[in-house]
Please model this.
Amino acid sequence: MATAIASPLIAGPYTGPARSVTEIVPTALWDKQIGLLARDYPYDTIMAARVLGQGYAYLLTAMRHRGESLGLAPSKLVDIGVHTIILDTVAYAELCEKYNGGHFLHHVPKVATKNDGSVLRTARLVAGDGWEVDLPLWANAADCGPCHPGNDSH
Model:
């Protein structure tokens, strides 16, 4: 059984079995989004599933902490999964309805990136919320930062 705590870098209060996004995302949607990632990026289905899973874990964590102004940020690879999710706007709106109290979690990117520690802080929070963190996908943290810090957006 997998655990959410994958590294001392992201250690947090959660120590139970990791939650799986495949229990939340309908199989047909999951398969479609894996196909989109494999079509648009040089990923096999295993890598596509890793990226997509972390994208969902990030978004669901951001939704759970709506209004807390935490300045959450995904890594570049996790952000690819996030984009795949939010570009399927009908499914994304349904996700926001179900897990974000009907509030749309907007995407407000900035051009400049910074090394402010927000990506690894976000990975810690994702793990603390019980999601498995695939740490190698969060490793390029130096090139990312909050897209819209202090706001309820990605």
Remarks:
- The first helix runs from residue 27 to 40.
- The two ends are 31 Å apart (CA to CA).
